[in-house]
């Protein structure tokens, strides 16, 4: 019996370890969770660079962003180590355990990680667009029609508006505007490709205790497969979105390719 128990424990360790590789690497490192989190950071950064407050704008710098990405990535990776314990192998692949506690924990965290990024992304994208629209409105008020008695007030108002516009123009450079446009395009694709998975996650949480027929289970599994495929598709299309939508990104990418080519040629010339 002791030998059988030890073999069973070894088998469980193997099973959990096997599930840890595809679920952890593909689901976390490959981008399902991290891509959502990074997109949230991008939206917040776009909002920061359009702020009227100089102190707020200074928060958007390379040093701070690198620290946030490094620390938060480590935290996310450590948090999702639970998949090595809570997932098991079935015919359909690695799935969360049906154990009451872990199943509830997984559904709640999955639901939170699906809904909270939606709220953050939509909120900060809306705030960024509002500031851009405000800039255009200030531009349209450069030459308002006024009566002579209002000339002094008009000059003071124009002076303040001009200073504000110059400040906005300095921050909203062409490069930043391109990044904001790319961010908006990426947000649109994020909503379209992640919404089915969010709906399915919410549906699974609501119908968790319902008794389902085999046909219902089959339909649920099919919808889950489609939603998961769209979810992974979003993780892979950022490069194509940036390449197709941004001239600057294409130029930078082409320059990088040429630089890599030159380094490879130089390397082989030295050692061959």
UniProtKB/TrEMBL annotation:
The chain crosses the membrane at residues 20-44, 65-85, 105-129, 182-202, 222-242. The keyword Transmembrane applies. It comes from the Eukaryota. It holds the Pfam family 7tm_1. The keyword Cell cycle does not apply. It is found in: Membrane. GO terms for cellular component: plasma membrane. It is a multi-pass membrane protein. PROSITE patterns: G_PROTEIN_RECEP_F1_2. Keywords: G-protein coupled receptor, Membrane, Receptor, Transducer, Transmembrane, Transmembrane helix. SUPFAM superfamilies: Family A G protein-coupled receptor-like. Residues 35-242 form the G-protein coupled receptors family 1 profile domain. One of its GO terms (molecular function) is G protein-coupled receptor activity. This is G-protein coupled receptors family 1 profile domain-containing protein. It comes from Adineta steineri.
